[in-house]
Amino acid sequence: MYIVQIASECAPVIKAGGLGDVVYGLSRELELRGNCVEIILPKYDCMRYDHIWALHDAYRDLWVPWYGGTIHCSVYCGWVHGRLCFFIEPHSGENFFNRGCYYGCNDDNMRFAFFSKAAMEFLLQSNKGPDIIHCHDWQTGLVPVMLYEMYKYHGMGNQRVCYTIHNFKHQGIGGVDLLWGTGLNRESYYFQYDKLRDNFNAFALNLMKGGIVYSNAVTTVSPNHAWEAHYTDISCGLGHTIHLNQDKFQGVLNGIDYDYWNPSVDRYIPYHYEKKDFEHKLYNKKALRKRLLLGESEKPIIAYIGRLDNQKGVHLVHHAMYYALNRGAQFVLLGSATEPGINAHFWHEKHHLNHNPDVHLEIGFNEELSHLIYAGADMIVVPSNYEPCGLTQIIGLKYGTVPIVRGVGGLVNTVFDRDYDQNHPPEERNGYVFYQTDYNALESAMDRAIGLWYVYPEEFRKLALQGMNCDYSWNNSGQGYIEIYENIRNK
After folding, report:
1. pLDDT score for 411
2. The pTM is what?
3. What is the CATH number of the domain that holds 465?
């Protein structure tokens, strides 16, 4: 198949979160299966140009209709670690993608509406005829709308769209200017409830809702998160829309790249290891202590890696740190805060605990250090309030680092409680799960994990090795998407 991905991110050249990892990882897996894959992205001024090979002009004069006129764009082509990517650069006074950031501007909805329009014009004007257009999150929610309301009448009637939602929290809310800018125009038509009108604001358009309504298939990034989106308020107001479109909605678990996240080949850790020489993980633990100036001791190391915000259960992250210290463990944190108040709080904690040899807080993000923490820690805590898929726990499993997670989203699909899981035999269980958002629930799971480490070390080692047996590569997820593509392609 010929597949075109349209997205606002692709790791490592453009990465603000997990979306970038998925676009790259899935594209790579699809190519390994013999498909032709191309990726269309905005050409941001702040993207990592050092990760692009042979960047060159591919289409110099792309004229994109916008309001009553046109905007001249250039399209560049280059390879990002083997993936063929096209970067759209508009030459416009609005400087849509020359902002020094990917997101966070007041006109984000118009910026990405233009990107969606430009991507469709590029497909049309360059005579590309993909079998599947796979677009992602609210930023590209207008792609299927424009395909089926406009572009199918201009020679693009054979294309089918798969739309993946990575985070329901951000949906792309805008006004009538989105219609007039893109040429969709008909206000009374698109402001109908069964089209783009927001479910709770009759005067707003919802781009994510448009993606759901108009796409041939809609996915989110884990089966359990798909259930949550359908039956709970985790969909942030789109539950009824999902219910009306449930026949084309499902969850496909994200994967990770085991060529990159793998302790047997990881170039960022000093000692490689796998199941047969698992004791080498101890050498990385010593290296981690040396790197972070932790005290040498016979204690387990518990880690947290990720953003410090409400989604990630920041109040439980803070509590996990002190509970670990009180239970005779060391604690390592690597994360950046998205809100000034949370950032200030953790900097205060860092200064307060600065002389404690059993804790280290690294405020910010360091890719190299994250690998060493995965390899050196004994356990990793993921206490999220909600987690569409989660990669932290999947990476932890591969590194033999036992996850302690809250039972939400994709965490439920990947971590199976050692003591209480009734759906998996004991030899398939790989971590600890708690369900409530209170301190007692977290402490119960941590207490069981720390207790096993101290009292039954061989059983803890066995649990870690069972985690390393898990296969959460893109192989299974890639097959899931191939089946979706084939299904909508034949309709």
Report:
1. 98
2. 0.94
3. 3.40.50.2000
